[in-house]
Structures are given as structure tokens and as C-alpha cells.
Amino acid sequence: MADETPLLRAQSVSLRFGGVRALTDVSFAVAQGEIFSIIGPNGAGKTSMVNCVSGRYRPTEGRILFEGRDITALRPNRRAGLGIGRTFQNLALFAHMSVLDNIMVGRHHLLRAGFLRGMAYWIGGAQREELEHRRAVEEIIDFLEIQHVRKAPAGTLSYGLRKRVELARAVALRPKLILLDEPMAGMNLEEKEDMARFITDLNEEWGMTVLMIEHDMGVVMDISHRVMVLDFGRKLVEGTPEVVMADEHVKRAYLGEVEAA
């Protein structure tokens, strides 16, 4: 995390829907190799901020920079091509497709397309490319410990396993930055522990920078390098977990602590 240029920078980002302000003048930076978490109550603007980073929303004001490049006007598929992957708060899997095929969908930005690729089938090039992608997907399946359901339709899996498959599909892009929207939502304690371990390993072993929204404060404070708190679309505080935990507003609003009488 010593690189002087942040991998991601949001500069004075504001977002309005008609007369409603979802975000107001939010700035932050995520360094290469960080796990950076955004917390706050429902309606605080967390998902709106991630949607501005992924390209689903375009900020009303401000800029989004990735590796020093202004990507504010780029579409989501262009950002994916630059190395930004994401999961969603609500599962977005293809229920009737197998786990393997769902994860293969995540590789489509890495496929070489066009007329020459069609010709390559006759000399084995495309077959070799597909084999490479299959091997990459199998590596992800092994890493996330879902070998036993690799051929099962995604819609038949438990909720926890489906969340793991969605993570696998995002990882299949091999992103430089992965955006995780409430990856532990709806999980039991064991599933949360597994997911936290996978996220940490993706960061430490696979070198992926993580921008995460999560309501489980224990998980956030345990695995994050830095944390930003949003409330009503504004940034309240940003810093290490220790700094955020010590903030009086955070303790009152999010950790259930009250001032002594």
C-alpha cells in the first residue's frame, strides 16, 4: 500500500435523483492492496457510492479516477475491462445455469472476439483459449471450496453457496479492484467466517484490492485496513478501524453505545 497514486479516488462526488440528494461532496481514496470498507445506516448512500464507482450511476458532480485515469463517463463494461469487478446486494446469478457456467460468464471480458477468433477454431487457437479460461475457473472453484456443486444449477443452492458463486463470478474477471456489496448479508455465523476468510485471502494471496459495503461491524473491523462512515449521503469519518471505533458519533449511532448520564 505504499504506491503514491491511489488505485481508486473519488473526488467531491455528489449524486442527485431529482430533488433527492443521495451523496453530497464525498471524497476518499483506496490504495493498491487495501481492504476499504464503507459503513453506515440504511439509506446512507453506500450502494449509491459503489454504483458511481462501477458505472451504474454517473455522479451529478465530482469525478471517479482509477489508476489516475478519469473514468467518470465510462460505461460499466468499459470499467470491467479496466479491472473493476463487483458483486451485488441482491443475487444476480443465472438460476438455471450451472455453477461452472455462471462463473464462466465472469470471464467474458477476457475473451478475444472477432473474425480472426472464428478462423482460429480451425487451427486450435480458440480451443486453447477456452481451455485456459476453464482452467482459471476451476482454480477459482477450488479456492472458494465449491467443487461439490460445480455442476449444480445455481438456483438449487443454499443462499450462502449462491453468495459464494457470485463472488466467484466477480473473481473470474481477475479484477484489480473488486466491489463487494454486503457479501455477508443473510449468512449464518459459519458462512460469514468462511466469506471473511475468502475475502482476506483474495486480498493477501491474489493481490486484489477490495472496496466493501458491510453491515456486520465485527467483520468490518476485523478485516478492513481502513473504514469510511457515511450518513445521509455525507462522509462522517474515515480512518483505520481503531480510529473509527473511537469516534463518538460512530459509537453512538452504529455500536449501540450511549453517553453516561
Explain this structure:
The model has no long low-confidence stretch (mean pLDDT 87). With 261 residues, the chain is of the alpha/beta class. The protein has 2 domains: 1-83 and 175-261, Rossmann fold (3-Layer(aba) Sandwich); 96-165, no CATH class. It has 10 helices and 10 strands.
Q: Counting H and I runs of at least 4 residues, what is the number of helices?
A: 10
- Elements, N to C (H/E): EEEHEEHEHHHHEHEHEEHH
Largest sheet: 6 strands, mixed
Highest-level CATH class of the largest domain = Alpha Beta
Helix-strand category: alpha/beta
How many domains?
2
> Which architecture of the largest domain does the CATH hierarchy give at level 2?
3-Layer(aba) Sandwich
pLDDT averaged residue by residue: 87
The third-level CATH topology of the largest domain is Rossmann fold
Low-confidence runs (pLDDT<50, min 5 residues)? none
Keywords: ATP-binding, Nucleotide-binding, Transport
GO molecular function, one term: ATP binding
Pfam family, one: BCA_ABC_TP_C
Protein name: ABC transporter ATP-binding protein
